Structure prediction request, 406 residues.
Amino acid sequence: MNTLRLAWRGLLRNRRRSLVTLLAIALGFAAITLFAGYTKNVYEGLAQQAIHAGLLGHLTLNKRGMTREGKLDPGRYLFNAAEIARIKSLLDDEPHIELIAPRLTLSGLASNSRVSTIFIAEGIAPQAMRTLQKGNIIKRLDPENPQTVLFSVGLAELLGLRAGDTAQVLTGTVGGQANAADVTLGGTFDTGNAGNNDKFVYMPLAFAQSLYDTEGGADRLTLLLDDDAQTDPVRMHLTQRLNEAGLDLEIHTWRELSDFYNQVHDMFDMIFAFIFSIVLTVVLMSVTNSMGMTVIERTREIGALRAIGLRRKSVLKLFALESLLLTLLGCASGLALTLAVRYGVNAADIAYTPPNSSSPVPLLVSVDATRTAFTFALMVIVGTLAACLPALRAAKRPIIDALGHV
Prediction:
């Protein structure tokens, strides 16, 4: 007896019910995979924002204890010029490292001679900044003008400054004394984060070192890799190599340093799990209801099949196969719907402004192959198992009772 043919005929026997159930599966599958594709695009965008636009690079090296006690005793945890040169020489032959950039963070007051406000500055070599950005949105520091800096848009507006204007910055040195200097505003940039868009400054590393009164010093080294996927393997390898060289350093990945990325990632993961559980429940109930009604309507048929020698496990196999075919068709239809909607959304050129952002971003949907495959497999398994309980209940009925069922 051809069980597959019987299962297919069973689906076609009540086309309307099968079609409604198939649509429920398809729409549920499309909803999950579209949201998974959207979140993947968000994750990728946030990663590029952190690595390149945020200038975090892939890895950050600092002396052990810098993140905990560096503000209390900054001089103790700064790299000097000799230490930076030694680390660079150790890592020169590493195949995946494209850039090793010394960095120096300082803070203080910025003034336009009338009003003052706080600022947080990042000192970085102009060429290193250009390499880290890889064509992203931040303007370039001018290597020919060491006292030309970049202000975030909000900070420039707060002080009423435009490109070419002069401002004053006041900061503390590594020894605790005050140090001030005139700077020229070379341009403005958008941090992409409303929380720090009115206080951020980029300045050449040499100028930041002179303000901080540290000769060739840096509080950390930023590493840019040639492949995002190499972040964790390179970190493990460098940790071992630097320890063997007697250097007690901490190595942080960009994920560990980007709180915003981690918060958004966790939030979307929780939303995905919530949506997934709801859709899976709807699909399970739809398939269970459909197969339950099918089994009830075909109780006499089951009795007849049992009477001609079909065993209980074969009855169970028949209805499980019907449910499997229905779920497979539903998921395949959902996948086709996903690709069609994805194409339409990406072609529509839709933009929106996310929370805590100062500029709009495009609404795009990627293909999350891992979550799509997981959803496909789980729906097929759940859909198939949903038919087992009503089919098993019908198969256990005595043949006489099944044949007399009305």
